[in-house]
Amino acid sequence: MKRKKITVAGCGNMGGAILSILNKSGKYKVDGLEKNSDLREIFSGQKIEMNESLSQVSSTDVLIAAVKPKDMAGLINEINESEFQMELLVSVAAGIKIDFIKSELYEKFPVSRVMPNTPLVLGEGLSCIALSDIDGEYFETVEQIFSHTGNTLRVDEEDMDAVTALSGSGPAYFFLIAEIMKEYAIKKGFSPSDASLLAATTVRGAGAMMMEEGADFTLLRRGVTSPDGTTEAAINLLEKQGLRKIFSAALEAAEKRSAELGGD
């Protein structure tokens, strides 16, 4: 059976991780499109064919557009000018809507939007997938590709800005909590390595408990929060200081920025 060819355009942090994972899976023939010569050299060292422009590729089965949102218009122009051929275009650029991409493409290729997150580098990511109604037949193709990076979730495109705020940006929120915990531990005399272990294993363990089937996050929190205990003292202070309101406002800010990137 012929392997699908996947071309990743934009091989920075996210695109580069997707390219490496798909290459290691052995399920696809992969190549990369990258303007930065240093990045091309890095991936060439992994025995991945790298190109500077689409004119050097000519065609692929699936093009994953992992460029920055500000560079999406340039990539679309390059597709149009080179008369590049593909079966499906998958965009992971935050905020850029399917209708915009389709309206700018000369040829009417099927287009999917995917919002992955950085834990995909460990195979622990969540990739949220949206397709227009007319292209719904491609859900399985996109799910199969991104299943190599972790979990997948089908969503309506109208929910993509919220998904970006929750899942796309989400890992950074937990990294910030871990940073604060580490800083506190160091202040209390722990070595940096022990402080990192205290913070990271706590976050990882809590995440594993939340992933158990049927897990209720509120019950999990209450299970740690004994009446008049240390955890209750901390939780009461966080609630009093308005953590829920602050965090909800932060999610709203991220969602709003995603919409702005898409021109809303």
Description:
This protein has 264 residues and is α/β, with parallel strands linked by helices. The chain has two domains: 155 residues, NAD(P)-binding Rossmann-like Domain (Rossmann fold, 3-Layer(aba) Sandwich), CATH 3.40.50.720; 92 residues, ProC C-terminal domain-like (ProC C-terminal domain-like fold, Orthogonal Bundle), CATH 1.10.3730.10. 50% of the residues lie in helices and 14% in strands. An eight-stranded mixed sheet has the order 3-2-1-4-5-6-7-8, with helices on both faces. Strand 1, helix 1 and strand 2 form a beta-alpha-beta unit. The longest helix is centred in the last third of the chain and has 19 residues. The protein starts with a strand and ends with a helix.
Q: Order of strands in the sheet with the most strands?
A: 3-2-1-4-5-6-7-8
* CATH secondary-structure class of the largest domain: Alpha Beta
Report the order of strands and helices: EHEHEEHEHEEHEHHHHHH
Mean pLDDT: 93
What is the fourth-level CATH superfamily of the largest domain?
A: NAD(P)-binding Rossmann-like Domain
Tally of separate helices = 11
- Helix percentage: 40-55%
The overall strand count is: 8
CATH architecture of the largest domain: 3-Layer(aba) Sandwich
CATH topology descriptor of the largest domain: Rossmann fold
Determine the strand fraction and express it as a percent band.
5-15%
Distance between the termini: 43 Å
SSE diagram, text form:
Elements: E1 5-9, H1 13-25, E2 29-33, H2 37-44, E3 49-51, E4 62-65, H3 72-82, E5 88-91, H4 98-104, E6 111-115, E7 125-131, H5 139-146, E8 150-154, H6 160-168, H7 170-187, H8 192-210, H9 217-224, H10 230-240, H11 243-261
